[in-house]
Specification:
Blueprint lengths: L20 E3 L9 H5 L5 E2 L9 E2 L10 H5 L6 E3 L8 E3 L6 E3 L2
Bound molecules: iron/sulfur cluster (SF4) (2 copies).
The site of one iron/sulfur cluster (SF4) has 14 residues, from helix 1.
């Protein structure tokens, strides 16, 4: 297959079910700060200004939370932990629930 210079092809791997982070397109401004701060480079910047970034390599996310912590728009991005990481711990004395981040 011949590829034109202006053409960008992406081939995401898809062994990971779901997405490691979820964007809220109503809040996200598409500033791409999360793209720059992701230490694993799993994102591609949004193809159009104002749109949410794209997730290219979901299986490489470490769930470190940098993208969420550095986002200037609260609620624009949230971690979407795999099921096996959603264990909650209960403090018997008070009944409080905690989750390891
Ligand atoms: S999720 Fe936050 S940091 Fe990422 S593009 Fe949207 S507003 Fe910017
Ligand atoms: S949690 Fe960490 S590794 Fe995963 S997308 Fe966010 S910054 Fe990247």
């Amino acid at each position: 297959m011949q590829i034109k210079n202006s053409q960008v092809l992406r081939t995401p791997n898809s062994p990971t079910p779901g997405r490691p982070v979820l964007f809220n397109p109503d809040i996200c401004t598409g500033c791409n700060i999360c793209v720059h701060f992701c230490m694993e480079d799993i994102f591609l910047p949004a193809p159009k200004k104002g749109e949410v970034p794209q997730i290219l390599y979901p299986e490489e996310c470490w769930y470190c939370g940098n993208c969420v912590d550095d986002c200037p728009e609260p609620g624009a991005i949230a971690l979407n932990h795999p099921l096996m990481q959603r264990v909650r711990w209960k403090r018997k004395a008070t009944g409080e629930h905690f989750r390891v981040r």
